[in-house]
Structures are given as C-alpha cells and as structure tokens.
Amino acid sequence: MLNKLLSVLLCIAVSASALFTVTISASADTDSDGNYVPAEGTDTYRYYFYMPQSWENEYTNNAGIYWWEGTDACPSWQDMYKIKETECENIFYIDAPQDVAKIIFTNYIDCGDPAESMYTKATQTFDITCVDSDGEEAWGYWPKTDFYDPDNDLYPEGIKNFDNMIYVIDYNKTEENPLNGKLIYCGQWYYYYGSGEYGYTPVKGDGAVYNTEYMSFKQALADKNAGENPSQPETTVAPETTVAPETTVAPETTVAPETTIEPTTAPATVPSSVFTVCATSNIFPQTKAEYNSSTKRVTVTYYLGTARDIVNLEWYLTFDNTVLDYNKSNNYDVSANKLNIMPQITPFGGDVIDTSFLGKISANASNLSLYSIDSAKPFVQVTFDVIGEPENIETTVNLNVRTLTTAEYGNDTENPDFSIINSFVDNYILNDSAELTFANTVLTDTTNGLIEWKNLSDENTNISVSGVVNSNADLNVSKLENTYEKSVATYDITLQKDGIAIQPDGAITIKIPSDVKDCKVMWLKDDGTAEDMNAEYIDGCYVFTTDHLSVYALVQDKTILTGDANQDGIIDVNDVTYLQMHIAGNKNTDGSAFIDETNKQLFDCVDMNKDGKLSVVDVTALQIHISQNN
User: Of 67, 233, 267, 373, whose CB neighbour count within 10 A is largest?
Assistant: First the structure.
C-alpha cells in the first residue's frame, strides 16, 4: 500500500514539475506510428486496455502507458509511451517487459501544466499491478477489501501475472487525487477472449462474457457466485432482473442490484441514437438510456428508501465533463439560492455540497434531528447539459456512496439513541442490506421539459407560482364556485404544457392574494377530503409551499354575523345601505364588487331569504332582522 501511494505521489510530482510539451517524447524504440516497441530479445507480457470512449477528446484518440520501474522505464511523465489499438475500437494493447511490475494507463495527454487547456482533458488509471515484484501472487485489484489483505474473490487462487488479460474500468472504484482534485480511474483485470469480449474465466463460455468499456467488479463477482455461464448482451453488467420502464426513454437494459432492492427503471426508445448515458452506483442499481442529437439536457435521479431515518450521509458523483456540463442554474431549489441536488436533505440544513471540481460533485450531511426519507421523492437528482452533439459516445454518471447512517430517537425524543445508530453503508460498502428498503435509478431526457426555476403569475387573479418547473410550463388558474364550508374563494391552480396538466418538478411556492384575513388554505382532494396547507398571510397574500397543484380554497376561520354586509361586526342600517349599493352595481375603488358573491360564507349571511340571489327582497328582510333584534 505504501509503495502504491509513493508511486502516485512520485508520478504527480514529476508531472507537475516537468516542462509542458504537447508532443510526448519516447525513451525506447517506437514504430512508424509512434507506438512502443520492446527491444529484440526482451521477454514481454501482453496487456490489453479497454479505454473508455469518453477519454477521447479534441486532443487525443489514443491510449498511453507510463511505468517508472523496470526495463525501458519512462524518465518522466512526458516520456510515457503510446500503445497500439487492436482491430476492436477502443481496445489497445502493449507488449511490456516482464520486469515491469506496475503501470498506469492514460489517454496519452501530458497533464503536467495546470495552466494549459488540455490539463483538464488528461485522464489516467491508478497504479495497476501487472506482476508482483517480490515473486508472490499478483492480485491486480485495488482498492482491496482490506489494504493488508490480498484477498480477491474473483481470482481466489491468485494470478502470477496478467499476460493476455484486459484491464477494464470500474466506475464504482473511481478515486479522487488528493493533490489536484482530479479523478483517478480504477478497474479490474479480466481474461481477454478477443473480438472485444472478456470475462473472469480463462476459457470463454465457462462464465459470463462481457464486451463493454466499463465493468462492475461487484457484478462480475455476483455473476461468478451465481454460476452465470451465458454470453451476455451489450450491457454494462450482467442483469439479474428486467423490469418495465417508467420513464420516456428506453434503456438498453435494466439491472437489478445485488441486494433485495427494487430494480432500475429508465426511459423509452428514442430513434437515431448517437450517444448513451449510463447511471451507475455502488449502492443504487444501474441503468442505461440512449439519446439522439435532439437531446440537450439529461437528468439522473436516485431514489432511496430506508427502514429508519438518516442521521448522516456522504457521497460523491462523477461524470465526464467533456460530454456533460453541470450548470448550477439548472439545479436550484424554489428559493433560487440553494442547490436542489438533495431535495429531501437541503431544506433541513446540516448539508454541504461542493461542485467546484471538474467532473465531480461531493456532498455530506449530518443532522441530529434526523432526515426522514420518502422513497417516492428524489434522494439525489442532478441535471446536466449535453455538450455539443456527441456521436457514438457512451458516458457514465456514477454515484459513489461512502456513508449512510440511520438512527432513531431515544426516550428523551430530542436526540438519537446513539446505541442503535447503524452505518449500514460504511467506507463505500453496504454492510446491512436490511436497512435499504428501496433503491432505484432513473435517467430522463429533460430537453423538452427543461427543469429550471421560474416565477409564473396569472394576470386575472394575480396568483403566482415560483419554483423548479418545466421551462415550457404555463400557469393556468380558474376561479371555481365555493362549495367548501366557510370558503371565501376557490381556485383550480395547474401547470400546463402543450395544454396538458403537469405537476412541478419539486417544491414550489404559491401566493394567493386576498383582502380577507384569518383564512386557512385548504387543498380540496379528489376523494372529497381536505388538507390544511399551513399557509401564512404575508403582505396581503396567503403563501404556502407544496409539491403538487390542484384545487385550493380560502376558508375563513371567523364567523360572519347574519346580515353583516359590510363585515364591520355590527348589524345596523349601514349594512342595509351597503347591500342596496351592491345591488345597484356600485364598485369599490379597485373595481371590485361591494360584496364578493363568491365568498360562500358572506353570501349566505346576506342572502336573507335563502333564494340563492341578492335582491331588494333581501334588503327588506335585513331591515326586518335588524328591527327584531334591536
């Protein structure tokens, strides 16, 4: 472990101090294309590398290799070697001297000078074990379950070297370089069968066969333990379960997680696919969706269900910033001041979200008041802009969860009972699957429903809605008859896109203007029940937050006296005059009627003869009512 860390630090130090050169030099023989060629008579091992297509950019479509010990060791990072591409796209190979114990695969870009534009486009793996320099068995998988335990269940008998094997990236094992914040990619060795196919058994067909640029070690191990033997289709991992899609873009495949978790869903087929997005995680199930050139924005959402509330969490999400662009303006909450990446966590505070690193978002949160998690709402949700019009590219967004801890209140009900706190995800490992009751991953094409913060207002009622909504949404407000008891106004408030009602994409704030104070805002549900929205009366408006739009009624708490037309709390001749002026059609200075006949409670109190209309007959009845009660 110590040698590994020292080698990484040495590599970084060399690259940071060396003079920047666009053309990388070579310290050994090369062929006419500039690829490394070992000297005649050198004993070699052949290593294959499946370079992710996302590593290609305007500066490179090649793979490189760097080693610092053994025959033909690279004098500096700038002296890395270019390696040959096979007949299969993105699969490269090198015949390396047998005394080279560790290597680093790259995309053949010198990343030594942070001031250069190509610095952010340089990618590399971690130190990869090829052979054990001490003559012991080489295991080739990093990080191991235990730093001091060479156990690798995929190859329990060990492998002396990885001759004629292929190294494939595992996004679940991506690390951050602590010195520069850039990502270092980790992976696993597999037996290479040729034609882009590989697996964990020496003989093709004795186990699962894969042919993708990314591969989950955990999935390969699960396939091996399950005795999987068929050739697999073009998937990121071998699926255990297939489920019907829930969204509008079809996945190439749907994969069930290793635990008893509900499976992944993804969107429906879009014609003319030109690039693919994979959403992966060490805890959540994986999904994949295909898009075409019309796709300009993609949202990845991870849903979580837990047996108890959460007291703390930590995760980081990685993506290829040459394909996907993170824009804060697409990820704000209803206040337009806070990020909505963790919509169930941020409103309660105690969270930190860092988006300063290229290609990475980090987050952690801790709250002794506990976070209550609803599996129907997003746990983590990030929207990305698609850069340009990518062609035939597969890119991955990976959520790596480091810590998830559940708790429950003790007898004092103010603090958690620390004796029963459970870190069911600890150091990226799921230790207690029973705590994870639900996990789901969804990819959504949000191009035609770009999710953004908007403030919409209805010009007739001045009712406003603000929050994260579809960019093409319009606000539609209809004033309805007051049917709920003591209601003074009833509105059907909806968002519509292309004439079809839609719901908001998160919490929104609604403001309903009214001169009538002391009201509650009630949500009138379709089943006939009503729910108090706990609205506040602020600056002449009832203000409340919700994640749905429907029919809302302003319901007055106070009782209106029979005949109190002007609502001054006194029944007298002034009410008679006020009612007469209303019947005559007089208006207030703002153009409103003297008596709001849609206010059911007020209307019923001045409709003296209960005939459903206001007329001079009610004036007479009011006069009689006053004379009899004075």
Answer: 67
